[in-house]
Specification:
Largest sheet: 7 strands, mixed
Distance between the termini: 30 Å
Number of domains: 2
Mean pLDDT: 95
Number of helices: 12
CATH class of the largest domain: Alpha Beta
Helix content: 25-40%
Number of strands: 12
Strand order of the largest sheet: 1-7-6-5-4-2-3
Shape: globular
Bound molecules: pyridoxal-5'-phosphate
CATH architecture of the largest domain: 3-Layer(aba) Sandwich
Amino acid sequence: MIKAGKENWEIYQEMGISKEVYDYCDKIWNSLKPRWEEIDILSEYNQLKVIHAMQKNQVSEACLLGTTGYGYSDLGRETLERVYADIFHTEEALVRPQITCGTHALALALMSNLRPGDELLSPVGKPYDTLEEVIGIRPSKGSLKEYGISYKQVDLLSDGNFDFENIRKAINEKTKLVTIQRSKGYQTRPTLSVDRIGELIAFIKGIKPDIICMVDNCYGEFTEIKEPSDVGADLVVGSLIKNPGGGLAPIGGYLAGKKDCIDNAAYRLTSPGLGKEVGASLQALPAFYQGLFLAPSVTANALKSAIFAANLYEALGFSVVPNGKESRHDIIQAVTFGNPDGVIAFCQGIQQAAPVDGHVTPEPWDMPGYDSPVIMAAGAFVSGSSIELSADGPIKPPYAVYFQGGLTWQHGKFGIMKSMQKLVEKGIITKDFGKRNL
Ligand SMILES: *Cc1c(COP(=O)(O)O)cnc(C)c1O
């Protein structure tokens, strides 16, 4: 029998982890066992939720075959959309390989449910960077603004709470849709729990019941036993190369919600008159189904990796969001280094742990949709997949890195150890770390 300890240490050493870093990390990992148990219980619940939805809709071998051409009567596609609707407890869902990424899914939801003269409100501060161009906060071709859709934003209070008073003031006769981002994205605000989202939706519906409440659910799926659609959201939206794709979906996005909202989106995605009836699934369905099946446990592995990172970097004296003890509502871990070197070293360490492209060195670059250079570590089987172990950091203050994923916790743990090793080698973590805070 292999005993953890000496034998494990030997393979880590072969892979470039020093004994000091190994020992430090091992102590932290072992102190977290009660958290691992909690997460196992969460993933057990969500695994059964997924199986229940698959059985209820009689997913069969025939569902794994794709269609080509127009894609009329695509049994696998239609069944998968029923499965998603049941998991999210919504009337309908749209789950398609033609939705190219999370931004596209969100843009689709917004552009199809808003009309000229309507107003969009974000009551939780600035949305994810790429949505700035969708909305037209930064001028952009094809933005909502170009179509005469206005935008209002109410920031969170400095303590992270909702600014109820100003949200009430911001809602007017034009307010048609409210967008609530569950995850922190590239910010250091706390991620919203499903319960807090429910509280916000109840408040908004109390002021104007017919407002469409949409949740940007990216990175949040399966991190709790409830989803925002269980607490009043009319529409939840996300990417299949994050949590719900389970690491296997090679592309895609989903929307789940009220029939009306989904119909609008389907007619915008394909064409008025065609809607959900077309859109060949090609060869995507086996990965969509199997990825969804794996998603609760893959998400749990990502959560374990994030919690390990939080506790390790907290012990090393860096500021981390969420902190080591907090409950989790998404898979993202922010670590603030305060300087570009820390961000770069961290990402290079993560890259060195990758199964694909582990030999390459990431550098900061200007990416479409972002307003500063970004460094991204991603040694992924699916290009850009961020349910796989990945890290990215915009090169701008406060010089925080956003770490997420890990299809297996073993890989997540190794990646974090590699990042620490890199920071030690670059002299960013000084030699006395072994004596600190443990
Ligand atoms: C990733 C993400 C998006 C955009 O998704 P892409 O697939 O990168 O286009 C939007 N919102 C949040 C909160 C995200 O995490």
